[in-house]
Amino acid sequence: MTRDRTLALVLATVAFAVNFWAWGLLSPLAPVYRDLLGLTPIQVSVMVAVPVIVGSLGRIPLGVLTDRYGGRRMFAAVSFLGVIPVVFLAFATDYWALLAGGLALGVTGASFAIGIPFVNAWYPPGQRGLALGIFGMGNIGTAVAGFVAPPIAERWGRPAAFLTVAAALTLIGLAFLLLGRDASGTPAVAEPFGARFAAAARLRATWELA
């Protein structure tokens, strides 16, 4: 059991970090796009903000879907889905394409809502704080984006910075499908998605925390 818990925690933390790496790609590359497309400061700010906003709000539906389908399926699905906007952005050459790609990229930022219940289910109450703290280290993904994306773009070209992340997302998605599993006894929620989403949306705390 301890080995299974550790594997689940490692997979979740790495998946969280890789998804946040993808989520944070546009910000460190903003100067490149500013110079390439002649963007104004407002346009740059909007471009950077779009995936952040979508990722924050997307945690509500992804949390509901995780309750229903489990963290294993959802982490794999979000990682694979994240490949699409990342590859799209690798070859985007105009501002509106960047906004569209950033909109879709926001799903990777919502991965936080998958990992919390997934990790929580594997650990007893007395160990959950430590486990969730370790999982939270996946936030380092945004820092990785900041440190890694610009040098890669400068040396091998802008598409390479995105395609590197696309490969990482694919690998962690496959790892979750092949090695990951949900904690035994995790109850599946049968209540319809719409009803659960509406119930969460009615809570003031939902929007404050999002």
TrEMBL record:
Coiled coil: none annotated. Residues 8-210 form the Major facilitator superfamily (MFS) profile domain. One of its GO terms (molecular function) is nitrate transmembrane transporter activity. The chain crosses the membrane at residues 7-30, 42-62, 74-92, 98-123, 130-153, 159-179. It comes from the Bacteria. PROSITE patterns: MFS (PS50850). GO terms for cellular component: plasma membrane. Keywords: Membrane, Nitrate assimilation, Transmembrane, Transmembrane helix. It comes from Carbonactinospora thermoautotrophica. It is a multi-pass membrane protein. This is MFS transporter. It is found in: Cell membrane. One of its GO terms (biological process) is nitrate assimilation. Belongs to the major facilitator superfamily. Nitrate/nitrite porter (TC 2.A.1.8) family. Its main location: membrane. InterPro entries: MFS, MFS_dom, MFS_trans_sf, NO3_transporter.
